[in-house]
Amino acid sequence: MLNLGFMTSMSTLRWLPFLVAAGCALPPAETVSVAEESAPVEADHHVPSRPQNLSWGWFPIDKEPVLSIDSGETVRIETLTHAGATQDEDPSTFLAGMGVPPEEVLDDVKEFWASREERPRDGRSGHVITGPIAIEGAEPGDMLEIQILEIETRVPWGVNNTSGSGGVFSPSYPGARPDDPPIDIPRGRHLIRTGEVNGREVAFVADGVEVPLAPFMGIMAVAPSPVIGEPGVTVAEVQSSRPPGPFGGNLDVKDLKVGATLYLPVFQPQALFYVGDPHGAQGDGEVSGTAIEQSLTGTFRFVLHKEVDIEGPRAENATHYLLMGIDLDLDRATRKATWAVVDFLVKEKGLASDKALSVASVAVDFRVSEVVDLTQVVTGFIPKNIFTRPE
């Protein structure tokens, strides 16, 4: 089976002879690169975040699709943060107590909250997830390309939680030791206002601290193939949304923002794409356990690549290829990310394996993308400008 790795619309022409020879489906003729898009993006379809379009903390593999599309089509998708939507107290009262005025509480949040008692919880996590979106013709063994065209904030606020016993300071964190001294950080739920300063969106995180907004979806996934005993699978056919895996999921890779493209292997018929855990901004690691949890709307183009077999999520943007290693152990995640980089350089750039490892060591940055979601993610960033041969 042909493994074409990265095949963005920008590089379709250089792949054309191989695609034709392999009998792979080409992206539609109207598909254009992210760089060629102009804002706002006019999407072919729109999926609102109404209760019937949402799941709570897992990726169902047998849920009726909320939308079915053809390869190459674009979809505008609304997402909700779990912050303010999943607690016991009703959203208006809960968020008012944090300083959110009534007009800034989305109706979708109230409707989801009212439906939460009807939703199964066993073996599930806390994320609110929109989907699934079916891609016609997708089958296991194919690859789904997700072009991230536009992401917009829906409300001018987000929430970040802190605690001396949460995130990397949790007693259950893999790096914790019984003799670690207690961390003196108060438990807090922080409302973070967002707005424009000098023409750019920022988050007012603390007095004198303004963090540029860089919105992205923490979760982008295809329906998995759950196996009991794998991370986050405690009930048959229930994949918790907490740990990311080969299906994507809660990757929390902050570079998967506008202009990036994510590639996921397909495990179920029609792929069944899910998106959620929207973030206004996040640092690598997400060390407190949360980012700026902020409801967003994203616009995506989906391109199906037939019989293109990849083992797990990978991505690219204008400047880098992104290869991800995912494991319960951070050292193992680093090892997997390094091998993914070497494998890519051998298969896609024609390097010998020893030269590929040299490139990995001298030119590739391995960044800890997230460390708080059971499985941990290390991403190898391969700079595109080191390659001097024409494609």
Descriptive terms for the model:
9-stranded mixed β-sheet; 19 strands; Jelly Rolls; alpha+beta; 6-stranded mixed β-sheet; 15% helix; 5 helices; single chain
How would you sum up this structure, described in words?
By secondary structure, the chain is α+β, with helices and mostly antiparallel strands. The chain has a domain at 37-171 and 184-306: Acetamidase/Formamidase-like domains (Jelly Rolls). It has 5 helices and 19 strands. It has helices at 12-22, 91-96, 107-115, 330-349, 353-363; strands at residues 45-47, 54-56, 67-69, 74-78, 128-135, 143-153, 157-162, 188-197, 200-206, 209-212, 216-222, 248-250, 261-265, 273-279, 296-305, 314-316, 320-327, 365-370, 376-383. The strands form 3 sheets. A 9-stranded mixed β-sheet has the order 1-4-15-6-13-16-17-19-18. Strands 2, 3, 5, 11, 12 and 14 form a 6-stranded mixed β-sheet that branches. A hairpin with a 5-residue loop joins strand 18 (365-370) and strand 19. Helix 4 (330-349) packs across helix 5. It starts with 11 loop residues before the first helix and ends in an 8-residue tail after the last strand. The model is unreliable at 1-5 and 8-37 (pLDDT under 50).
